[in-house]
Design goal:
Blueprint: H1 6-67, H2 69-72, H3 74-82, H4 87-103, E1 107-114, E2 119-124, E3 127-132, E4 148-155, E5 172-181, E6 188-197, H5 199-205, E7 215-219, E8 225-228, H6 241-248, E9 254-259, E10 262-271, E11 274-283, H7 284-287, H8 289-335, H9 350-388, H10 393-409, H11 414-430, E12 436-438, H12 439-456, E13 461-467, E14 475-477, H13 481-492, E15 500-510, E16 513-520, H14 527-538, H15 552-558, H16 563-575, E17 580-585, E18 591-598
Parallel strand pairs: 13-15
Antiparallel strand pairs: 1-2, 1-6, 2-3, 4-5, 5-6, 7-8, 7-11, 9-10, 10-11, 12-14, 15-16, 16-18, 17-18
Helix pairs in contact: 1-5, 1-8, 3-4, 9-16, 10-11, 11-12, 12-13
Keywords: ATP-binding, Cell membrane, Kinase, Membrane, Nucleotide-binding, Phosphoprotein, Transferase, Transmembrane, Transmembrane helix, Two-component regulatory system
Protein name: HAMP domain-containing protein
Subcellular location: Cell membrane
Length: about 600
């Protein structure tokens, strides 16, 4: 499909704006959809994380409230302050620790250290174990101003107590540590540590995210993972650039950001001894899944719409441009010379009006041609005969003189063959009724001419030819090859050489055209004369009256007589303006003349 056609332009200019509008609509729709989904996701997940942080705060507050029993239980407090050596005091201590352990199902174990008598008590699986004369466990010994601290997730242990604990299996826990103070001072009476299983956080956090698509982390103030998707990372530092850049160094208690093709939403959890951050990661692909599904549907609809529009556009463009193409075909037929074409009406629109006017114009032209046709044929026939009549009469005189001299001097039978050759040439050239002959006939005429020239120049040259068999029976204008060969003997033959040659070849070029080459090894044409000859050949036309005048000026200008312009004029008269004749000097010496004409399969009457 060519760009400069109306059909192509119609298709492009209809489809292109449609495609641009559809794609722009899809882009804007997708952009607003993603923005809406992003805003909605931020709002919903911010509220969800806020509720989750409230639940985590309540859990920590509940654990902290349990740790305050040491103050509300006066007997427990006095025993811790004075020391608890007797069985009754030990029973009170165990009862209070057991209350703390049994108040929440997720409490793993409770550790108590009394400063007064350096006694440590560890309650595991409701079984108390006591050690005396041991130092407090370092993580439990709070030395900061705050009496409460939360330790991030770690594996449960025996708080440095060396005695074996039956059926003790370490598990991930987080711990609330409290320093028991002598009120109203901050002097430590003891240290209380409560290990809490991560199941307490699992019940809360599992409701905050989609475990198949999203991720969530609960981080302490140092970036250590309190809780997350991967249990192997519990208690380890989170190695993520987005945390250091967008959360830890920020002062805001909540917010969101996008990085690494994901949306991150975070919420801080603060309280006594508590500085945690809840972070949720939502992949953009999951966040925008609804928009992507809608975009996929829109693309499918767009493809269907484009197919429909393209089909309709092509049908409409073909309907509009088909009459134009038909009118173009009519004009091409007229250009080839077929004037009696049947031009049919093409409707009543503008194109139909143009077609009707064209038909009327062709009728007028045909009427004029009918009146001028016979005169044109007569003029053309006379023109061709005038061109053919320009055979050099001196050639016949010279030939007769040669034959006569030979007959007087040698008295041999060879004279007969020479006379026969001359007779053939005279009959061929003077039989003016035939204007179109076969290639074989034209070649036979050249052979007769060569036979005479061999006698004239004492066999100082050779003649050879090579023609495709199929081309011998095709037709060409009469008296074309012999004038070209004659130029060799007039202007190019070197009398001092005995190895001269003339060669004629013919081959089919394709597209129903053939090429005939006539070359020799004689003298080359001087550059100035060759340029002048080419100019005359280039500007030659079928009606060029100068070619009909055999003047001495033409002979001297071209260096080859009027033979080649004569040949070209006759070629164009018979074969049309597509006939080509070129002349070139050969590098090895000599001249080559190339003829290129259409192959004529049947004899035409001119």
């Amino acid at each position: 499909m060519k760009w400069n056609t109306i059909r192509t332009k119609m298709i492009v200019f209809i489809l292109l704006p449609t495609l641009i509008c559809i794609m722009a609509t899809m882009f804007i729709s997708y952009h607003f959809s993603t923005q809406s989904l992003r805003t909605r996701a931020v709002d919903e997940n911010t509220n969800l994380l806020f509720q989750g942080t409230r639940n985590i705060e309540s859990l920590i507050q509940e654990i902290n409230r349990l740790s305050l029993i040491v103050y509300s239980d006066s007997e427990f407090y006095r025993s811790l302050e004075a020391g608890y050596e007797d069985m009754l005091a030990n029973a009170r201590i165990y009862s209070s620790l057991n209350y703390i352990s049994s108040s929440m199902p997720d409490i793993s174990q409770v550790y108590l250290y009394g400063v007064k008598d350096s006694k440590a008590t560890l309650l595991t699986q409701n079984t108390p174990k006591r050690w005396q004369g041991v130092p407090p466990y370092p993580d439990s010994k709070i030395t900061t101003d705050s009496a409460v601290s939360l330790q991030s997730t770690h594996l449960s242990h025996s708080y440095g107590l060396t005695a074996p604990i039956p059926q003790f299996i370490p598990e991930p826990v987080f711990t609330l540590h409290r320093r028991i103070e002598r009120v109203p001072t901050t002097k430590a009476l003891g240290y209380l540590s409560i290990d809490v299983k991560l199941t307490a956080l699992t019940d809360i956090i599992s409701q905050l995210y989609d475990q198949k698509q999203e991720k969530i982390w609960l981080l302490d103030g140092n970036g250590n993972i309190v809780y997350g998707d991967n249990s192997e990372e519990f208690g380890k530092k989170l190695n993520a650039a987005w945390y250091d850049t967008n959360i830890r160094d920020k002062q805001s208690s909540q917010g969101y950001f996008e990085e690494d093709k994901a949306m991150f939403i975070y919420q801080n959890i603060e309280g006594p001894g508590l500085n945690w951050t809840l972070v949720k990661q939502i992949p953009v692909s999951y966040l925008f899944r609804e928009a992507n599904e809608a975009a996929t549907i829109n693309i499918a609809l767009m493809v269907l719409l484009l197919i429909t529009i393209t089909t309709l556009t092509i049908l409409i463009s073909f309907r509009i441009t088909a009459p134009i193409k038909q009118l173009t075909r009519y004009m091409n037929q007229v250009q080839t010379g077929k004037l009696d074409i049947d031009i049919r009406p093409m409707g009543k629109d503008e194109i139909g009006v143009v077609t009707e006017r064209f038909r009327s114009m062709m009728d007028t032209i045909n009427n004029l041609i009918l009146r001028e046709y016979k005169l044109e044929l007569t003029n053309k026939t006379n023109e061709l005969r005038a061109l053919q009549a320009q055979i050099n009469p001196h050639f016949l005189n010279n030939t007769l003189q040669i034959i006569g001299t030979l007959a007087l001097e040698l008295k041999v039978p060879q004279i007969y063959s020479l006379l026969s050759a001359l007779a053939k040439m005279m009959r061929y050239s003077m039989y003016n009724e035939e204007k179109i002959v076969t290639v074989k006939d034209e070649l036979d005429h050249v052979k007769a001419y060569i036979e005479l020239q061999k006698e004239r120049f004492e066999n100082k040259f050779s003649f050879r030819y090579d023609m495709e068999e199929a081309l011998l029976e095709t037709f060409m204008p009469k008296m074309i090859l012999q004038p070209i060969v004659e130029n060799y003997f007039k202007h190019g033959f070197n009398h001092s050489r005995s190895d001269g040659f003339v060669e004629i070849t013919a081959a089919e070029l394709g597209d129903k055209r053939m090429e005939i080459c006539i070359q020799n090894n004689g003298n080359a044409i001087p550059s100035a004369k060759l340029d002048l000859l080419r100019q005359k050949l280039q500007h030659s036309t079928r009606t060029d009256i100068d070619l009909l005048r055999n003047t001495e000026q033409d002979k001297e200008a071209t260096g080859s007589g009027i033979g080649l312009p004569n040949v070209l004029a006759r070629l164009k008269l018979v074969c049309g303006d597509s006939a080509i004749l070129t002349v070139d000097n050969l590098r090895a010496g000599g001249v080559v003349v190339r003829l290129e004409i259409d192959i004529i399969a049947e004899r035409e009457t001119i």
